[in-house]
Amino acid sequence: MGLFNLFSKKENKADLDKGLERTKQGVFAKLARAVAGKSKVDDEVLDNLEEVLITSDVGVETTLRIIRRIEERVAADKYMNTSELNGILREEIAALLEEQRPEVEDFTTREATGVPYVIMVVGVNGAGKTTTIGKLAAKFKAAGKKVYIGAADTFRAAAIDQLAVWAERAGVTMVRQDMGSDPASVAYDTLKSAVANQADVVLIDTAGRLHNKIGLMNELTKIRNVMAKVIPDAPHDVMLVLDGSTGQNAFEQAKQFTQATQVTSLTITKLDGTAKGGVVIGISDQFKIPVRYIGVGEGIDQLQVFDRREFVASLFGE
Fold it and tell me: What distance in Å separates the CA atoms of residue 236 and residue 119, rounded to the nearest whole number?
């Protein structure tokens, strides 16, 4: 059974609609003002639309790409009225995500290999990294998987303690050492224990410091190299957790971490408390890294597999 099949699509869709409500209201209020008094899509409307998208945290590069697409359609159709703009914008955003974001396979459906699937989770402190790990662990356990967590953020006692609470709540095994221990040592011990006990999945937490890129890069590289001594192709996924409510700061975090390590998937959290949900569109487009999960609430079931079609449908109220 796939992990998120535990919850109905109807429940997930309702949470998604509710979680994106502030973004939707913000975007369409701005869009209404952008086309007020206009009967057709002209240069002024396009300029206003560009401002709407940028101020909705879609990002400059992605916004310009969307505007170019709409300009091409206006030129081809010769005349386009403003009442059609919502539909056209929806189509172009959906097409953009279709092109830039390949499908991400839910690893819980993969054939059993006898080797744990290792996810190294990275991101700044406060982005929701530890909570995401806890929610994933609970989900995986509920899906019948044997889960191990490695508390390799050894620089903050609070991070280890918070992870321990999640591990106990989820009923999964956590490997920890004393605060200040070598993070790579924790990762190594976690994988050794997971292999010995035939675990299905391992989640490795890491420190969320951006004090300098060189230090971050060296630390993450060391963790990766040590894990590869236990499982040669580990980690199988390097998941970057970003706080969607930070808007443009999330772009900068993505830039820093993609330069420091080979990020293979994204989780974007806290979309329910912000009008900046446009970051999902811009980040998935600009970094060409698949968004795997999005957080649309505090509940365990409100960390959802990202479905680009459902995301666009919810954003545009369909």
Answer: 6
Q: 175-222 pLDDT, tens per residue?
A: 999 988 999 999 999 999 999 999 999 999 998 876 566 777 888 899
| Count of Cβ atoms closer than 10 Å to residue 131 Cβ | 19
Q: Which residues contact residue 54 at a Cβ distance below 8 angstroms, ignoring those fewer than 6 apart?
A: 60, 63
| pLDDT given for residue 99 in this prediction | 61
Residue 114 backbone zone (phi > 0: left; psi -120 to 50: alpha; other: beta): left
Nearest CA to 36 out of 87, 83, 89 is that of: 83
Reduced to 3 states, what is the DSSP secondary structure of residue 151? strand
pTM of the model: 0.86
- Evaluate if residue 1 carries a pLDDT over 60: no
Closest CA to 311 of 43, 8, 23: 23
List pLDDT tens digits, range 66-89: 999 888 888 887 667 777 877 888
Of the candidates 56, 59, 63, the residue with the CA atom closest to the CA atom of residue 24:
56
Buried-exposed string 139-165: b where 16+ CB fall within 10 A, e elsewhere: bbbbbebbbbbbbbbbbeeebbebbee
As a whole number, the mean pLDDT across the chain is 83
Task: Please provide the distance, in angstroms rounded to a whole number, between the alpha carbons at the two ends of the chain.
Answer: 28
d(CA 17, CA 11): 10
Any idea what DSSP says for residue 316? T
Quick one: pLDDT at residue 63?
92
Q: Report the pLDDT value the prediction gives residue 6, as an integer from 0 to 100.
A: 38
Classify the phi-psi angles of 60: left when phi > 0, otherwise alpha if psi is within -120 to 50, otherwise beta: alpha
CA–CA gap between residue 130 and residue 43 (Å, rounded): 46
- At residue 147, the pLDDT reads 96
